[in-house]
Write a structure and sequence with these properties.
Layout (H helix, E strand, L loop, with lengths): L13 H60 L3 E4 L13 E4 L9 E2 L5 E10 L4 E8 L4 H7 L5 E4 L7 E6 L20 E6 L4 E13 L15 E8 L6 E8 L1
Parallel strand pairs: 7-10
Antiparallel strand pairs: 1-2, 3-4, 4-5, 4-8, 6-7, 8-9, 9-11, 10-11
């Protein structure tokens, strides 16, 4: 028996047309926002790579200057001979080795801020080795700009001296800058090199905690005569700050 197939005619109503247009518009917007998100991610990755390259260039330049100063000054001695004291007796020979310190060279960032390279922070456990730069004005705007280049001295005395030397660095949630600092635990070693005299001091982590961004109590200089350092970075959600404290061994 023959069967006759009858199809139902589909009428395009105004409501259906409106829904079709909305679907098309939503699809185009979704594609647009997806492209924007991908572009932002690529730019952020490029920006992080650029920051890493700039930081390593700063470190290489500072270390080369340190090496050049050492070569130039290593054979320079100043001797004072046959001088006399107030009572007329001959003074002892005084010999001064000029290779005891070097002058920090001022640099300027692309945004126009002046800074010097204080030294270097090395954390073997998390493969960190970065220069520590110190801005001229210590303003908030300056610090924010310099943080894009390298870890920055935030507060404290001269490097590797008595007091609490505070260093702040970005957490990019990868392996760059201070991203892995929150994984440090008590007993881990942090090495701080002073580029003024090329000396290195080892510090041992003794505390780690989280604070609100407005809490700066970690920068206190009450160290009971000890040399301490404080590393500061963001939590992974950037809402709070991770504080890592360490004392000189």
């Amino acid at each position: 028996m023959n069967q006759i197939l009858v199809t139902k005619k589909l009428y395009i109503t105004p409501e259906l047309k409106r829904k079709k247009k909305m679907y098309k518009a939503n699809f185009i917007l979704s594609v647009f926002f997806l492209i924007v998100l991908i572009s932002v991610y690529i730019y952020a990755a490029y920006d992080r790579d650029k920051a890493e390259a700039v930081s390593q260039d700063i470190l290489a330049t500072a270390e080369q200057e340190q090496e050049d100063d050492t070569v130039v000054d290593s054979d320079v001695l100043i001797a004072v001979l046959n001088d006399t004291t107030d009572d007329g007796t001959e003074a002892p020979v005084v010999v001064s080795d000029t290779n005891q310190s070097t002058t920090k060279t001022k640099q300027q960032s692309q945004s126009g801020y002046t800074y010097v390279t204080d030294g270097k922070v090395t954390i073997p456990k998390i493969n960190v080795e970065y220069p520590i730069i110190d801005g001229e004005s210590d303003s908030e705007a300056e610090t924010e700009e310099l943080l894009k280049m390298s870890p920055v001295k935030f507060h404290g005395p001269e490097i590797n001296t008595v007091g609490n030397y505070c260093i702040v660095g970005h957490n990019y949630r990868n392996t760059r800058f201070f991203s892995k600092v929150p994984t440090l635990v008590n007993g881990d070693i942090i090495q701080i090199t002073n580029f003024t005299d090329n000396s290195t001091v080892e510090y041992e982590v003794y505390d780690k905690y989280i604070v609100d961004p407005t809490d700066v109590s970690c920068t206190s200089q009450n160290t009971d005569g000890r040399r301490e350092i404080t590393l500061i970075t963001c939590t992974d959600d950037s809402k709070q700050r991770v504080i890592v404290k360490a004392r000189a061994i």
